[in-house]
Design goal:
Radius of gyration: 18 Å
Structural class: alpha+beta
CATH architecture: Beta Barrel
Strand order of the largest sheet: 1-2-7-8-3-6-5-4
Number of domains: 1
Order of helices and strands: EEHEHEEEHEEH
Largest sheet: 8 strands, antiparallel
Number of helices: 4
CATH topology: Small Protein B, Chain: A
CATH class: Mainly Beta
Length: 157
């Protein structure tokens, strides 16, 4: 198993800054409506979700600003790299996420784009609340302290 595979998932893109910038309250797995050339580009391992977000519009949830570059062997039927992509969720999940975004001030942040064990492209989206600057400092202090504790235990133990 390679380093980018986790429990049967082949990770294509990961948004590492999301956990630094937001408190992730809940994570939801969703499917994506993709064209053939987009899937082929993902199989090449090319994608970027670092600057993307999800937004409830027209009764659905859409992935916005995710960059899937054009397929290298594609022709004039190639896809547009930063187009809006529809996310596939149940109606109840769409309603719950839309309410959280509208009423409670949450945001939907893509965390990970991957192929599941059946080879289907999925995206993990987190229901998140933004961190303030002091929260980010506290998180980094905590992380540094745990690293230091581990180092001390290794040296003494």
């Amino acid at each position: 198993m390679s380093s980018n595979e986790k429990d049967g998932r082949k990770v294509i893109a990961e948004n590492r800054r999301a956990r630094h910038e937001y408190f992730i309250e809940d994570a939801i797995e969703a499917g994506l409506v993709l064209t053939g050339t987009e899937v082929k580009a993902l199989r090449e391992g090319k994608a970027n979700i670092a600057e993307s977000y999800a937004s409830p519009e027209e009764g659905d949830i859409w992935l916005i600003n995710a960059n899937i570059p054009e397929y290298s062997a594609g022709n004039r039927e190639n896809h547009e790299p930063k187009r809006k992509r529809k996310m596939l969720l149940h109606k109840r999940e769409i309603a719950r996420l839309s309410q959280a975004v509208d009423r409670k001030g949450y945001t939907l942040v893509p965390l990970r784009l991957y192929f599941n064990d059946r080879g289907i492209a999925k995206i993990e989206v987190g229901l998140a609340q933004g961190k303030k600057l002091h929260d980010k400092r506290d998180t980094s202090k905590e992380r540094d302290w745990t690293r230091q504790k581990q180092r001390l235990l290794r040296e003494r133990g």
